[in-house]
Specification:
- With 272 residues, this protein is α/β, with parallel strands linked by helices.
- It has one domain: TIM Barrel (Alpha-Beta Barrel), CATH 3.20.20.100.
- 40% of the residues lie in helices and 17% in strands.
- The chain has ten helices and ten strands.
- The radius of gyration is 18 Å and the shape is globular.
Length: 272
Protein backbone atom coordinates (compact mmCIF):
# COMPACT_ATOMS: atom_id res chain seq x y z
CA UNK A 1 0.00 0.00 0.00
CA UNK A 2 1.34 3.38 -1.03
CA UNK A 3 1.62 6.00 1.73
CA UNK A 4 1.85 9.77 1.87
CA UNK A 5 4.33 11.47 4.19
CA UNK A 6 3.40 14.74 5.84
CA UNK A 7 5.08 16.48 8.79
CA UNK A 8 6.15 13.18 10.36
CA UNK A 9 2.95 11.21 9.62
CA UNK A 10 2.81 8.28 7.20
CA UNK A 11 -0.76 8.07 5.93
CA UNK A 12 -1.85 5.08 3.79
CA UNK A 13 -3.03 6.46 0.43
CA UNK A 14 -6.37 4.62 0.46
CA UNK A 15 -8.55 4.37 3.54
CA UNK A 16 -12.10 3.39 4.40
CA UNK A 17 -14.48 6.27 5.08
CA UNK A 18 -17.23 5.24 7.52
CA UNK A 19 -19.72 8.13 7.34
CA UNK A 20 -23.31 6.77 7.47
CA UNK A 21 -22.10 3.23 8.32
CA UNK A 22 -23.85 1.98 11.44
CA UNK A 23 -24.14 -1.00 13.78
CA UNK A 24 -23.16 -4.52 12.73
CA UNK A 25 -22.70 -3.41 9.10
CA UNK A 26 -20.07 -0.89 10.15
CA UNK A 27 -18.14 -3.33 12.37
CA UNK A 28 -18.25 -6.04 9.68
CA UNK A 29 -17.08 -3.69 6.90
CA UNK A 30 -14.18 -2.37 8.98
CA UNK A 31 -13.09 -5.92 9.82
CA UNK A 32 -13.45 -7.02 6.18
CA UNK A 33 -11.57 -3.97 4.87
CA UNK A 34 -8.65 -4.71 7.17
CA UNK A 35 -8.62 -8.35 6.05
CA UNK A 36 -8.51 -7.18 2.41
CA UNK A 37 -5.44 -5.03 3.08
CA UNK A 38 -6.80 -1.61 4.09
CA UNK A 39 -4.61 0.01 6.74
CA UNK A 40 -6.39 3.33 7.17
CA UNK A 41 -9.84 3.76 8.78
CA UNK A 42 -11.57 7.13 9.08
CA UNK A 43 -14.38 7.93 11.53
CA UNK A 44 -15.68 10.93 13.51
CA UNK A 45 -17.55 11.70 16.72
CA UNK A 46 -20.57 12.93 14.78
CA UNK A 47 -20.82 9.68 12.75
CA UNK A 48 -21.90 7.92 15.98
CA UNK A 49 -20.05 4.74 14.95
CA UNK A 50 -16.72 4.95 16.80
CA UNK A 51 -17.77 2.01 18.97
CA UNK A 52 -18.49 -0.18 15.91
CA UNK A 53 -15.27 0.94 14.22
CA UNK A 54 -13.46 -0.16 17.39
CA UNK A 55 -15.20 -3.55 17.24
CA UNK A 56 -14.09 -4.02 13.64
CA UNK A 57 -10.52 -3.08 14.52
CA UNK A 58 -10.41 -5.60 17.37
CA UNK A 59 -12.07 -8.36 15.35
CA UNK A 60 -9.40 -8.00 12.62
CA UNK A 61 -6.72 -9.04 15.17
CA UNK A 62 -4.16 -6.80 13.47
CA UNK A 63 -1.39 -5.27 15.54
CA UNK A 64 -2.31 -1.76 16.64
CA UNK A 65 0.73 -0.27 14.88
CA UNK A 66 -0.41 -1.74 11.56
CA UNK A 67 -3.57 0.38 11.27
CA UNK A 68 -3.85 4.15 10.86
CA UNK A 69 -6.99 5.36 12.64
CA UNK A 70 -8.44 8.86 12.22
CA UNK A 71 -11.29 10.44 14.15
CA UNK A 72 -12.61 13.99 14.22
CA UNK A 73 -13.74 16.30 17.01
CA UNK A 74 -17.18 17.82 16.44
CA UNK A 75 -17.55 21.62 16.53
CA UNK A 76 -19.55 21.66 19.78
CA UNK A 77 -16.42 20.32 21.58
CA UNK A 78 -13.96 23.00 20.48
CA UNK A 79 -13.63 24.75 23.86
CA UNK A 80 -10.33 23.46 25.34
CA UNK A 81 -11.77 21.38 28.22
CA UNK A 82 -14.50 19.95 26.00
CA UNK A 83 -11.98 18.99 23.33
CA UNK A 84 -9.84 16.96 25.74
CA UNK A 85 -12.86 15.30 27.35
CA UNK A 86 -14.52 14.41 24.05
CA UNK A 87 -11.25 12.97 22.72
CA UNK A 88 -11.05 10.74 25.80
CA UNK A 89 -14.63 9.61 25.11
CA UNK A 90 -13.71 8.82 21.49
CA UNK A 91 -10.77 6.68 22.64
CA UNK A 92 -13.04 4.82 25.07
CA UNK A 93 -15.53 4.07 22.30
CA UNK A 94 -12.77 2.99 19.90
CA UNK A 95 -11.11 0.93 22.66
CA UNK A 96 -7.76 2.53 21.83
CA UNK A 97 -5.21 4.31 23.97
CA UNK A 98 -4.49 6.75 21.12
CA UNK A 99 -5.59 7.49 17.57
CA UNK A 100 -3.11 8.14 14.77
CA UNK A 101 -4.77 11.33 13.63
CA UNK A 102 -7.21 13.67 15.34
CA UNK A 103 -8.90 16.35 13.23
CA UNK A 104 -11.07 19.40 13.82
CA UNK A 105 -14.10 18.34 11.75
CA UNK A 106 -15.27 21.78 10.55
CA UNK A 107 -14.19 25.33 11.35
CA UNK A 108 -16.13 26.90 14.23
CA UNK A 109 -16.04 30.73 14.21
CA UNK A 110 -17.64 30.85 17.69
CA UNK A 111 -14.52 29.56 19.47
CA UNK A 112 -11.19 31.35 18.89
CA UNK A 113 -9.09 29.14 16.61
CA UNK A 114 -5.97 29.70 18.73
CA UNK A 115 -7.73 28.17 21.78
CA UNK A 116 -8.99 25.13 19.87
CA UNK A 117 -5.61 24.50 18.26
CA UNK A 118 -3.88 24.92 21.63
CA UNK A 119 -6.18 22.23 23.03
CA UNK A 120 -5.59 19.99 19.99
CA UNK A 121 -1.82 20.30 20.45
CA UNK A 122 -2.27 19.59 24.18
CA UNK A 123 -4.12 16.28 23.63
CA UNK A 124 -1.29 15.31 21.28
CA UNK A 125 1.26 16.08 24.02
CA UNK A 126 -0.82 13.97 26.44
CA UNK A 127 -0.47 11.04 24.04
CA UNK A 128 -4.13 10.74 23.01
CA UNK A 129 -3.19 11.15 19.33
CA UNK A 130 0.01 10.76 17.37
CA UNK A 131 -0.81 13.47 14.86
CA UNK A 132 -3.26 16.35 14.47
CA UNK A 133 -4.91 18.10 11.53
CA UNK A 134 -7.99 19.89 10.25
CA UNK A 135 -10.92 19.19 7.95
CA UNK A 136 -12.99 21.47 5.70
CA UNK A 137 -10.53 24.36 6.17
CA UNK A 138 -10.22 26.93 3.39
CA UNK A 139 -6.84 28.32 2.26
CA UNK A 140 -7.17 31.36 4.56
CA UNK A 141 -8.15 29.20 7.55
CA UNK A 142 -5.36 26.76 6.79
CA UNK A 143 -2.75 29.54 6.70
CA UNK A 144 -4.12 30.84 10.00
CA UNK A 145 -4.17 27.39 11.62
CA UNK A 146 -0.60 26.58 10.62
CA UNK A 147 0.59 29.93 12.02
CA UNK A 148 -1.31 29.50 15.31
CA UNK A 149 -0.81 25.82 16.09
CA UNK A 150 1.99 24.99 18.58
CA UNK A 151 2.39 21.50 17.00
CA UNK A 152 2.69 20.61 13.30
CA UNK A 153 -0.57 19.88 11.48
CA UNK A 154 -0.41 16.95 9.04
CA UNK A 155 -3.48 17.30 6.80
CA UNK A 156 -6.57 19.09 5.63
CA UNK A 157 -9.38 16.63 4.89
CA UNK A 158 -11.70 18.08 2.23
CA UNK A 159 -14.17 17.03 -0.42
CA UNK A 160 -12.21 16.28 -3.59
CA UNK A 161 -13.15 14.42 -6.77
CA UNK A 162 -12.96 15.08 -10.53
CA UNK A 163 -16.01 17.40 -10.49
CA UNK A 164 -14.63 19.76 -7.81
CA UNK A 165 -11.54 21.84 -8.52
CA UNK A 166 -9.48 21.99 -5.32
CA UNK A 167 -6.26 23.35 -6.84
CA UNK A 168 -5.95 26.23 -4.37
CA UNK A 169 -6.38 24.06 -1.27
CA UNK A 170 -4.00 21.48 -2.71
CA UNK A 171 -1.36 24.16 -3.32
CA UNK A 172 -1.82 25.52 0.23
CA UNK A 173 -1.34 22.03 1.68
CA UNK A 174 1.82 21.54 -0.40
CA UNK A 175 3.14 24.93 0.74
CA UNK A 176 2.77 23.89 4.39
CA UNK A 177 3.96 20.29 3.93
CA UNK A 178 0.45 18.97 4.70
CA UNK A 179 -1.28 16.00 3.09
CA UNK A 180 -4.60 16.51 1.36
CA UNK A 181 -7.09 13.78 2.33
CA UNK A 182 -10.06 13.49 -0.06
CA UNK A 183 -13.50 12.60 1.25
CA UNK A 184 -16.31 11.76 -1.22
CA UNK A 185 -13.51 10.85 -3.67
CA UNK A 186 -15.92 9.13 -6.07
CA UNK A 187 -18.42 12.03 -5.82
CA UNK A 188 -20.91 9.94 -3.79
CA UNK A 189 -21.11 7.41 -6.63
CA UNK A 190 -21.91 9.98 -9.33
CA UNK A 191 -18.80 9.14 -11.33
CA UNK A 192 -19.84 5.59 -12.14
CA UNK A 193 -21.69 6.58 -15.31
CA UNK A 194 -19.18 9.20 -16.40
CA UNK A 195 -18.26 8.61 -20.08
CA UNK A 196 -14.74 10.10 -19.80
CA UNK A 197 -13.81 8.01 -16.76
CA UNK A 198 -15.42 4.90 -18.28
CA UNK A 199 -13.43 5.34 -21.51
CA UNK A 200 -10.14 5.84 -19.65
CA UNK A 201 -11.04 2.86 -17.45
CA UNK A 202 -11.60 0.60 -20.46
CA UNK A 203 -8.06 1.29 -21.67
CA UNK A 204 -6.71 0.04 -18.31
CA UNK A 205 -9.38 -2.62 -17.65
CA UNK A 206 -10.51 -0.67 -14.62
CA UNK A 207 -13.81 0.84 -13.44
CA UNK A 208 -14.61 4.57 -13.42
CA UNK A 209 -14.24 4.54 -9.62
CA UNK A 210 -10.80 2.96 -9.83
CA UNK A 211 -9.70 5.57 -12.39
CA UNK A 212 -11.01 8.30 -10.10
CA UNK A 213 -9.12 6.98 -7.05
CA UNK A 214 -5.97 6.44 -9.09
CA UNK A 215 -6.19 10.07 -10.30
CA UNK A 216 -6.18 11.23 -6.66
CA UNK A 217 -3.35 8.95 -5.53
CA UNK A 218 -1.18 10.02 -8.47
CA UNK A 219 -1.53 13.61 -7.23
CA UNK A 220 -0.15 12.44 -3.86
CA UNK A 221 -3.62 12.79 -2.34
CA UNK A 222 -5.04 10.28 0.19
CA UNK A 223 -8.56 9.05 -0.60
CA UNK A 224 -11.09 7.62 1.86
CA UNK A 225 -13.96 6.18 -0.20
CA UNK A 226 -16.97 5.01 1.78
CA UNK A 227 -18.89 1.94 0.74
CA UNK A 228 -21.40 -0.34 2.42
CA UNK A 229 -20.72 -3.17 -0.01
CA UNK A 230 -18.02 -5.77 0.54
CA UNK A 231 -17.34 -6.29 -3.19
CA UNK A 232 -16.74 -2.56 -3.62
CA UNK A 233 -14.13 -2.67 -0.85
CA UNK A 234 -11.77 -4.83 -2.91
CA UNK A 235 -12.39 -2.76 -6.04
CA UNK A 236 -11.49 0.50 -4.29
CA UNK A 237 -8.13 -0.78 -3.07
CA UNK A 238 -7.15 -2.43 -6.35
CA UNK A 239 -5.62 0.67 -7.92
CA UNK A 240 -1.89 0.19 -7.48
CA UNK A 241 -1.26 -1.95 -10.58
CA UNK A 242 -1.79 0.70 -13.27
CA UNK A 243 -0.75 4.28 -14.03
CA UNK A 244 -2.68 7.05 -15.73
CA UNK A 245 -0.79 8.94 -18.45
CA UNK A 246 -0.16 12.69 -18.15
CA UNK A 247 -2.82 13.24 -20.85
CA UNK A 248 -5.38 11.16 -18.92
CA UNK A 249 -4.57 13.02 -15.69
CA UNK A 250 -5.11 16.37 -17.41
CA UNK A 251 -8.32 15.23 -19.08
CA UNK A 252 -9.78 14.18 -15.70
CA UNK A 253 -8.60 17.40 -13.99
CA UNK A 254 -10.31 19.45 -16.73
CA UNK A 255 -13.69 18.11 -15.54
CA UNK A 256 -13.47 20.04 -12.26
CA UNK A 257 -15.01 23.37 -11.37
CA UNK A 258 -15.62 25.26 -8.10
CA UNK A 259 -19.37 24.55 -8.32
CA UNK A 260 -18.96 20.77 -8.22
CA UNK A 261 -19.29 20.63 -4.43
CA UNK A 262 -21.69 18.00 -3.02
CA UNK A 263 -21.24 18.57 0.74
CA UNK A 264 -22.28 22.02 1.91
CA UNK A 265 -23.98 23.22 5.08
CA UNK A 266 -25.17 26.52 6.43
CA UNK A 267 -22.28 26.49 8.92
CA UNK A 268 -19.67 25.84 6.20
CA UNK A 269 -16.93 28.46 5.70
CA UNK A 270 -16.86 30.70 2.64
CA UNK A 271 -15.27 28.26 0.21
CA UNK A 272 -12.29 29.12 -2.02
Amino acid sequence: MQSIEANGATIPAIGLGTWELRGRTCARLVEQALKLGYRHIDTAQVYENEREVGEGLHASRLRRDDVFVTTKVWTTHFAPNDLARSTKDSLTRLRLSEVDLLLLHWPNPHVPLAETLGALAHVKKLGMTRHIGVSNFTVALLDEAVALCPEPLVCDQVEYHPYLDQTRVKEACARHGLALVAYSPVAKGRIKNDPTLARIGQAHRKSAAQVCLRWLVQQNVCAIPRTSRIERLSENIDIFDFTLSDEEMLEISAMGNPKGRLTDFGFAPKWD
